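Regression check, S-adenosylmethionine case 236:
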Amino acid sequence: MSDDEPKPERRRMVRPPSGGTAAGRGMGQKIKTADKKSMSSQQWIKRQLSDPWSERARAEGWRSRAAFKMMEIDDRLRLIKRGSRVIDLGAAPGGWVQVALDRGAAEVVGVDLLMIEHIPGAHLIQADFTHPGVDQQLIDALGGPPDLVLSDMAHNTVGHRQTDHLKIIALIEIAADFAIRTLKPGGSFVTKNFQGGDAGGVLARLRDEFEDVRPIKPEASRKGSSEVYLVATGKR
Ligand code: SAM
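Current build output:
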């Protein structure tokens, strides 16, 4: 999904141009199915179509506005190096995969619950990352340990605060655990996080395992959202 915070259960993303062309849906176009969707879905679609970052993503051929978040994080910390091996958790529709390849990554493996349209040069898997064996499947597809693990995973909210909170923390913990187990020494890890969420345990663990851990709120992350990214570099 190209949104930047947990989404209501029935929210669906506006399909980006396949292969990342600039032929995406324009701002004034009608949404044929909007009357059948829930209010929250309609609001989400409206917001997508009037959002300058989404518009820019369509114009430039990025599959999601999230691509700009990764570009900013990488501009600041230079995580993607020529020849890097990258694993992207929660990769659909593929903005971060595109950015990793564009910036010189040699191997990129992405996984998502949703099907990700083919991106030349990437190995894309449709699976639930939390299911047993999927972690090994990713390492096998990459052909070795990663230099960089990215996680933009976000679950569909159920509307019950505590349940949603637990789900957010669980995804962060699972992604962090995977990064810690698999990264090469010196490697980096980026995960979506939410301000006010109790990611304290994960944070302490990341601080033990990495030279530097810092929060980054990219410009493309919606101002009113509590979304923030945790960036851990220099895997010990
Ligand atoms: N970074 C992506 C991009 O640049 O296009 C956007 C990712 S979107 C914000 C979050 C994604 O996480 C959704 O596509 C969702 O299906 C995926 N996701 C959530 N839970 C997951 C899980 N357990 N396994 C795999 N993907 C998951």
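Comparison notes: DSSP finds seven helices and nine strands in the chain. Confidence is low (pLDDT under 50) at residues 1-19, 21-32. No diff flagged against the previous build.
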